[in-house]
Write a structure and sequence with these properties.
By secondary structure, this protein is of the alpha/beta class. It has three domains: about 1-135, 3-Layer(aba) Sandwich (Rossmann fold), CATH 3.40.50.2300; about 200-370, Orthogonal Bundle (Hypothetical protein af1432), CATH 1.10.3210.10; about 375-440, Molybdopterin biosynthesis moea protein, domain 2, CATH 3.90.105. It is built from 14 helices and eleven strands. The protein has helices at about 20-30, 40-50, 70-80, 95-100, 115-200, 200-220, 225-235, 260-275, 285-290, 310-330, 335-345, 355-365, 370-375, 415-425, and strands at about 1-5, 10-15, 35-40, 55-60, 85-90, 105-110, 375-380, 390-395, 395-400, 405, 435-440. The strands form three sheets. It has a six-stranded mixed beta sheet, sandwiched between helices. Strands 7-11-8 form a three-stranded antiparallel beta sheet. Strands 9-10 form a two-stranded antiparallel ribbon. A hairpin with a 5-residue loop joins strand 9 (about 395-400) and strand 10 (about 405). Helix 7 (about 225-235) crosses helix 9. The protein binds fe (ii) ion. Fe (ii) ion binds near residues 239, 293 and 321.
Length: about 450
């Protein structure tokens, strides 16, 4: 066995039992750019293949102990990628076919060979090996890259899923925060109103009525829910700047005020805006409050702006404020709404925005309902089994042994109903239960 292996070169293994043949083959391929390995038998060839990578195997067919076809077949198990060739006599075609079919030989070369043909055949085999190796390398690379891509895809999917979960959680937190902020905002407005109620009940009542009118007008105008909520808040607080002088009656006309009162009255819109300017969420509300006494023709105060230069919110509040002021002076007389609408009509286009009359008309009737409109309270008596959640008691409920169970005026809850049933089972009620209900006028 001879080895001239250079690890940088591809190797060609020649196997022949005749030493002279191997020598002549070595001479023939001496100048070729590949390493030459030789073996004197099939067994020796297999030993080389176990240790050394080989690109091309050229084997003689006719050898003692192990013929070429058998050797090539065994070599396939050790180095399946090597390109195999068989050298065989002219007459031995069946041996050549055997080597091709069973030994995986790529071609056969007849002996004696033509040197030039053999050199070309080995070069071709090497090229075939190179192409095969390159093909395997590219296939492996493709598989590896596909696997990388699959991993990246899976990681990306996991990352996207995690990001989606995080975003969804953050959105939920933001929604909860928004709800909390909204509640805080409403609580703050309620606190302002409570202060107003304590200080000046008439002003408080006027503010509530104006807010109700504005809400109805806003709905009739099709304002967005957020804008309407802010506008109603502005209406509730529109005269907050008057709290400094609670004795100044709302029922007075400016002409009826003393010069000091007039001076005070003239600054209440600016003072209202100034009170609210410290709260970021109420900046817009403050601006509407500042301009709620501007006139459509520019003769109002404090800025004497006119037409659409006056913010829409301020124009809506001005309409509601003026109408409620007129209703207050008339003592909220029953059935006064229609008449008051006729009285206020000439002010539209002069003091008030003419486009807002219809929305006032749509809102006013529902705000100024009288007790007679709402119906009259009457008392009806019902047995226990006819009671329902929400009913209001017209007198106390006492057990059979005269124990007070629920007081007059209480609204029935499901819990209260359940308790009554339990008491009734052990200490039966002696009377029917008196319930308050309303009867609408005919
Ligand atoms: Fe005012």
């Amino acid at each position: 066995m001879t080895s001239e292996l250079n690890t940088d070169k591809l190797a060609v293994l020649f196997v022949d039992d005749e030493e002279n043949v191997l020598k002549s083959l070595k001479r023939l391929f001496l100048d070729e750019p590949f390493a030459i390995l030789t073996a004197g038998s099939g067994q020796a060839g297999l030993e080389i293949l176990k240790e050394t990578p080989v690109a091309v195997i050229v084997s003689d067919q006719k050898m003692p102990a192990m013929i070429g076809a058998e050797f090539l077949a065994k070599s396939c198990e050790i180095q399946p990628d090597a390109v195999r060739m068989i050298l065989t006599g002219y007459a031995d075609v069946s041996a050549a076919m055997d080597a091709i079919n069973k030994g995986g030989a790529y071609r056969y070369i007849t002996k004696p060979w033509n040197d030039e043909d053999l050199v070309h055949a080995v070069r071709d085999a090497l090229e075939r090996y190179r192409l095969g190796a390159e093909n395997r390398r590219l296939t492996a690379l493709t598989i590896e890259q596909n696997e990388e891509l699959r991993k990246w895809g899976a990681e990306l999917e996991t990352y996207v899923q995690q990001q989606t979960i995080d975003l969804s959680r953050r959105n939920k937190e933001l929604e909860q925060l928004a709800v909390k902020l909204k509640k805080n905002f409403r609580d703050m407005i309620t606190a302002f109103l409570k202060i107003m109620e304590l200080r000046d009940h008439l002003l408080y009542r006027h503010s509530i009525q104006v807010a109700a009118l504005v809400e109805g007008m806003g709905k009739a105008m099709g304002l967005k829910a957020e804008t309407l909520e802010l506008l109603v808040s502005a209406a509730q607080l529109h005269d907050i700047g008057s709290l400094k002088s609670p004795d100044m009656s709302l029922l007075k006309d400016m002409k009826e005020m003393s010069p000091e009162e007039q001076q005070e009255y003239a600054v209440h819109p600016v003072r209202g805006q100034s009170v609210l300017s410290v709260i970021d969420d109420l900046k817009q509300v403050g601006l509407w409050i500042r301009n709620h006494h501007e006139w459509y023709n520019g003769q109002g105060f404090p800025d004497r702006i006119q037409g659409e230069s006056i913010p829409l919110g301020a124009r809506v509040i001005a309409v509601a404020d003026t109408f409620d002021w007129m209703m207050c002076r008339a003592g909220h007389a029953q059935n006064a709404v229609a008449g008051m609408l006729e009285k206020i009509r000439p002010l539209f286009g002069v003091r008030l925005d003419p486009r807002l009359f219809e929305s006032l008309k749509a809102s006013a009737a529902s705000v100024y309902t009288t007790d007679a409109d709402k119906g009259q309270d009457i008392v009806i008596e019902l047995p226990l089994e006819k009671l329902a959640v929400g009913m209001v008691l017209a007198r106390d409920i006492r057990s059979g042994s005269n124990l007070l169970l629920l007081g007059k005026g209480a609204a029935l809850s499901q819990k209260a109903l359940d308790s009554l049933c339990r008491y009734h089972a052990v200490d039966p009620l002696k009377e029917k239960i008196a319930i308050l209900t309303k009867v609408k006028p005919a």
